[in-house]
Amino acid sequence: MSDLLRPIEIARPASLEFGAGLVGRVGAWAKERGVTRTLVITGRSGARRVDLLALPGQVEVWNQAQPEPDIPDLDAALRVAARVQPQLVVGFGGGSAMDLAKLVAVLPGSGQTLHEVVGPEKVNGRKVLLAQVPTTSGTGSEAGTRALVTDPATQNKLAVQSRHMMADLAVVDPDLTISVPSAVTAFTGVDALAHCAEASPRRRRIR
Ligand SMILES: NC(=O)c1ccc[n+]([C@@H]2O[C@H](COP(=O)([O-])OP(=O)(O)OC[C@H]3O[C@@H](n4cnc5c(N)ncnc54)[C@H](O)[C@@H]3O)[C@@H](O)[C@H]2O)c1
Fold first, then answer.
1. Which of 82, 92, 183, 201 reaches 20 to 30 Å from 193, CA-CA?
2. If we measure between CA atoms, which residue out of 91, 95, 101 comes closest to residue 47?
3. Ligand 1 pocket, residue 180 CB under 6 Å
4. Residue 13 Cβ contacting ligand 1 at under 6 Å
5. Binding site membership of 142 for ligand 1 (Cβ less than 6 Å)
6. Average pLDDT over residues 84-97
């Protein structure tokens, strides 16, 4: 069978906006939906410019997202979510912040633990809105269904994949990436190249 005859499914966020200066669209979108309580998952650099999101109502910022997040990082973010009870979770940063935001959007109140949702399509559902705003340019996490968290006991990355972790809104504003350190730009560029190779119908030859 040729590749053209093999069925494929393309899943994308309900709305994906791309353009310089669009970051404030997140706030307008949240306002249209009556959101009054938001939790932003970000790192230190993102926390300094959360105002750019123009979010309405009460905004709690968890600014501890660090590269290659691990289970204690996730647990800390989940504790904040349990206290804030957000209507909207926003991932604002690189893949590390966005992956944590996905899990913070689906785990609280679900009765499911991280270990119970590792693997494909084990998440029961999602009760809150999820928006993703990348500040790096390589992972594509804002438009995907996967989240990766490291288990410090084994150093393995636990991969959760669920359609419930697909964002309702992704806003890709290239202006946000200007401040990215050059080393991170290089790493994320290789990440983007690897995604292209993985998606190529010629991937078997590349290997
Ligand atoms: N979900 C997916 O499909 C997917 C795909 C690939 C990678 N990942 C995950 O993504 C993570 C890597 O993400 P990444 O490469 O985007 O890097 P990152 O999120 O780890 O960020 C790298 C560093 O850059 C900083 N940073 C981010 N944006 C910045 C900005 N605009 N200005 C200044 N500093 C900034 C961060 O604070 C951090 O210190 C890994 O945990 C990886 O497992 C997920």
1. 92
2. 91
3. yes
4. no
5. no
6. 98
If you take atom 16 of ligand 1, which residue's CA is the nearest one? Answer: 94
pLDDT in tens, 39-77: 999 999 999 999 999 999 999 999 999 999 999 999 999
Question: What is the domain extent for residue 112?
Answer: 11-178
Tokens representing 183 are 């080393």
Two tokens at 134?
């990348």
State the pLDDT at residue 207. Answer: 44
Q: How far apart are CA 77 and CA 73, in angstroms?
A: 6
Q: What's the Cα-to-Cα distance from 26 to each of 40, 148, 155, 176, 192, rounded to whole Å?
A: 11, 24, 35, 14, 24
Nearest ligand 1 atom, CA 43 = 37
Instruction: Output the domain CATH number for residue 73.
Output: 3.40.50.1970
With a 6 Å cutoff on the Cβ, whether 93 touches ligand 1 is yes
In a domain, 78, yes or no: yes
Q: Tell the residue nearest (CA) to atom 38 of ligand 1.
A: 67
